[in-house]
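Pipeline run #58 for the internal structure catalog. This entry was flagged by the ingest filter as a single-chain record with no existing model, so it goes straight to prediction. Upstream metadata was stripped on purpose; only the residue string is passed forward. Reviewer on rotation: M.T. Logging verbosity set to normal.
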Amino acid sequence: MSAILLIEGALVLVTGGFVGYIIRHYVAISRRGSIEADIEEKLLQARKEARSIEDEALTKASTLREEVKKAEDRVLKQEERLDKREAELARRDDELAKELASIKEKAKELQVFKEKIEEREKNITKELEKVAQLSSLEAKNLLISRTEKEAHDDLQLRSLKLARDGEARLEERARDILVSSIYRIANGQISQFMTSTVEIDNDEIKGKIIGKEGRNIKTFERMSGVEVLVDEIPNGIVVSCFDPVRRAIAVNALQMLIKDGRIQPVKIEECLEKAKKEIGTFMKKKGEEAVLACGLLSIPEELIPIVGRLYFRTSYGQNVLDHSVEMAHIAGVLATELGVDVHVAKAGALLHDIGKAVDHEIQGTHVEIGRKILMKYGVDERVILAMQAHHEEYPYETAESVIVQVADAISGGRPGARRDTVERYIKRLEDLEALAMSFSGIEKVYALQAGREIRIFVSPLLVSDLEARDLARNIALRVEQELRFPGEIKIHVIRESRMIEFAR
């Protein structure tokens, strides 16, 4: 049993040792396989990294090759440009050399030409000396003597001019004294013809008339065609205008505005329109009074307002309507004494200056304008013949025409009845307005400041600012060329801006 047990124990031991060996062998084999796998994996990883490094190196090498190629191309292009520039410079050098050679050749030709000219001048000088029988020195002395004589004469003329200038200054001073004296005496009379005064209760109304930034007074002056002087006299406003009808309308409208108290552009326009109607009614009334005073009831109704318009017109300082009525009475007396048609003589006398009512609006003499007016409204032919000869523009065809001319001489020949300077003055202002109005793009023209200024309103749609400046200058030039006037006239062109020039 023990042997068996021993044998069994030996067998167990042998079997256990063999099994343990087998187990250790397999364990060793498995560990060796794991290490080999790790080594294989690391080798694969190393190969991948080597391939990646190789690819990167190849990429960098390719990039470097491209950059080197580009650099080589740039160098080649630069060399080509330098070659071209060098060729251009060489060509320019050749051209400059040719031009220099040409200039040198021309310089030689000019030198030769100059020598020929100098030689010719010497020959001409010799020929002149032969003709004049004078040497160069003698001619020089003669020239000096003549110059001295001319200088002496010039000095004498200058001294004489200085003496005359002294006399002229003294005469001018004397004239200034006389003019000043005449002005002081005649100022009131001139003001009567050219200005009107509107009385006000206080000076506060002046601010309303002027308006904000001068808006009201500018609107009033533009629409009425007069100049308003608010600070000329205390407790009053002066309205200045050479056209008495225009001035009367402005005064009437201004009185309406002051009475109403609401002074604004819309109200100004309304009052001016109302004043025009009232003045029209007034002129008709004056015409009717003149016709009734002369006993001429057969005169056409259309002529009566025109006759009344003469109330606002003066001729040589004489009221034309009063002058015409006076002439009618004188003509009536003469016609009665001579036994001719009294009605024709009186009508011819009353209507002889009817053209002066509109002569500032229609071109022509007041006689021609009057004839056209009378013919238009069917006045008796005998009346037209009687009135047309009073300035001897037409022949005396009837006895009545002679009577009208005689009556005109009697009425106008009274001491102090006429003042020639006033008539010429008004005519100059009318010519000034007509000349400015002849230009295109102008809406309204007003002569102001006793003819020292002309205010011109242009259409903004037709005239630009630059054109307005040119327009002011052109009008100034026309005034200088066509009109005669003392001193200077201010040409005032108004658009959005004002362009001012002076006609001197």
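catalog note: Confidence is low (pLDDT under 50) at residues 184-191, 415-421.
catalog note: Strands lie at 195-199, 227-233, 236-240, 314-315, 318-319, 442-448, 453-458, 489-494, 498-503.
status: ready for reviewer M.T.
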